[in-house]
TrEMBL record:
Protein name: Major facilitator superfamily (MFS) profile domain-containing protein
GO-annotated molecular function: transmembrane transporter activity
Keywords: Membrane, Transmembrane, Transmembrane helix, Transport
Bilayer topology term: Multi-pass membrane protein
Stored InterPro entries: MFS, MFS_dom, MFS_trans_sf
Species name: Coniochaeta pulveracea
Transmembrane segments: 55-73, 93-114, 121-140, 146-169, 181-202, 214-236, 288-309, 329-346, 353-373, 379-400, 412-432, 444-466
Coiled-coil spans in chain: none
Cellular component, GO, one term: membrane
Record domain Major facilitator superfamily (MFS) profile: where: 55-467
Subcellular location: Membrane
Length: 495
């Protein structure tokens, strides 16, 4: 390790940069000592890469199975589940949406529980539990049994996503989280890309052990989920400030450096004891509900695609079942490239709202093509644009809210609220493409267009407000994101 102490700089928006950072602006920066850590810039980058490999890859892999397990109904439905369970009328929509009722209700306590018992135990246990529920879905005899298991699945999965969002935000500075959220969600996006191909392969087990092919989709994916949940107990990491003994991949001094850089960036690395009033008081900030509404609009589109794209490919575009299962993959793979490219741009140039607008414009362009173009090839091109825009907006919205809040318990409340509204978006996404609207599904297309347009309006409102508040702070008229927790005088909102 380098022998000399390192100085880091905190600029006017609170971002941490090493002393040799070419982008550091000395006229706006003040030098802050971050202890006697003695890490060279190269050693710092290696520490961050180790955190990426251990944390982002692990939670990304677990989210991969989470996303597959909650959205594989579309593949199972066209593989024979619809006929065998007699999913007539609105039964399919009921099965998809009941998951989100419990998924929403059981989310708020999760970010409190994970602080109490730790991410390793909390996340690994609920992963094994919902994997067991998935296996059970392969043996149901009626549609109401499937609906009941979907309710239980919502309870088990409720704590996973908000806990992961919160955990990632505690490890990285504000202008590092964009790429990390993107990588985290990108793994899930790739899972969506190949889940159709996997489902098609599992369908070929039709007749094995006297079970139809769609049942093997649930059984095999459930077994994989359980195995990953068990592995997660050893692979997951705790919070950087935790005193629990799970730190074989980082030393004491390295952890202290991580906490110090987060503290210098946004001043909330230290966690005050839980207080219900402090936790709930975050709800008085109207901006938190706007972030949540942006997330709701985004997830409405993503879930609508996840649940109904295989059906639309068969009914609207005329592809057979095998082709529809496989044609789900390319749009999601394309979305992965768009997602990471925009996340890199967002972190590098510190633009959050603009990325959301770009994503929503892709949806606004793609939805009419998908719904009204004459040829199947053109409609399929529209699917690429909508899938890329909607899915890229999930990590973009998470980064947007993560950059513009301070305080650990406010962050915990915001994570739960954001993902809770995402669950409500899941209910909406389950309903927008109704069976009676087949094969054109125009009301669903109009609903998705409205969600994308509303997001652009909400970002415009927030941007104007952020610029006004930042200008007031620059003039010394107010402090931003002040609370009863420690605050950082240099904090500014990110537009």
């Amino acid at each position: 390790m380098a022998a000399t102490d390192e100085k880091v700089h905190v600029d006017h928006v609170g971002v941490v940069a090493s002393s040799d950072d070419a982008e550091a602006r000395s006229d706006k920066n003040t030098s802050v000592a971050v202890g006697d850590f003695g890490f060279s810039p190269d050693e710092q980058r290696k520490i961050i890469r180790r955190i990426d490999r251990r944390l982002v890859v692990t939670v990304g892999a677990m989210y991969c199975v989470s996303l597959m397990d909650r959205t594989n109904l579309g593949a199972a439905n066209i593989a024979g589940m619809g006929k065998e369970l007699k999913l007539i009328g609105n039964r399919y929509s009921v099965i998809t949406l009941v998951f989100f009722v419990t998924y929403i209700c059981f989310q708020p306590p999760s970010t409190v529980i994970i602080r109490r018992i730790g991410p390793r135990f909390h996340l690994s246990v609920i992963t094994v539990l919902w994997g067991s529920v998935m296996i059970g879905m392969g043996f149901v005899k009626s549609w109401d049994q499937m609906a009941a298991l979907r309710v239980i699945l919502g309870i088990m999965e409720a704590g996973f996503f908000p806990s992961c969002v919160y955990l990632l935000s505690t490890w990285y500075t504000r202008y590092e989280v964009g790429k990390r959220y993107s990588m985290f969600y990108l793994v899930g996006c790739l899972a969506s890309a190949f889940s159709g191909i996997l489902a098609y392969g599992l369908m070929q087990m039709n007749g094995l052990a006297d079970l139809t092919g769609w049942r093997w989709i649930f059984i095999i994916e459930g077994v994989l989920t359980c195995l990953l949940g068990v592995a997660g107990y050893w692979l997951l990491v705790d919070f950087p400030d935790s005193k629990r003994k799970s730190w074989s991949f980082l030393g004491e001094r390295e952890r202290a450096w991580v906490c110090a850089r987060v503290e210098a960036d946004r001043g909330d690395a230290k966690v005050l004891p839980f207080n219900l009033k402090r936790f709930l008081s975050a709800g008085s900030d109207w901006k938190i509900w706007v972030y949540a509404l942006i997330f709701f609009n985004s997830t409405t589109i993503t879930y609508a695609l996840a649940y109904f794209l295989p059906i639309i490919l068969t009914q609207r575009m005329g592809f057979d079942v095998g082709a529809a299962q496989c044609l789900v993959a390319p749009p999601y793979a394309f979305a992965g490239f768009v997602m990471f490219g925009l996340a890199w741009y967002s972190d590098k140039y510190r633009h959050r709202g603009a990325v959301i607008v770009i994503n929503m414009l892709l949806c606004i362009i793609g939805l009419p093509i998908m719904g009204f173009a004459e040829s199947a090839a053109a409609r399929y091109f529209g699917v690429f644009l909508v899938t890329a825009g909607a899915n890229s907006n999930i990590p973009a919205a998470m980064s947007y809210q993560a950059n513009n809040i301070r305080g650990q318990w406010k962050r915990a409340f915001c994570s739960a609220t954001l993902v809770g509204f995402g669950g409500i978006g899941g209910i909406a996404g389950s309903l927008v493409f109704r069976s009676q609207d087949a094969p054109l599904y125009r009301p669903g297309l109009y609903a998705c267009l409205a969600c994308a347009s509303l997001n652009i309006i909400l970002v415009a409102i927030l941007t104007l407000n952020f610029k006004r508040l930042n200008a007031q702070a620059d003039r010394g008229e107010r402090e931003l994101e002040d609370s009863d927790e420690d605050y950082q005088p240099g904090f500014r909102y990110t537009c």
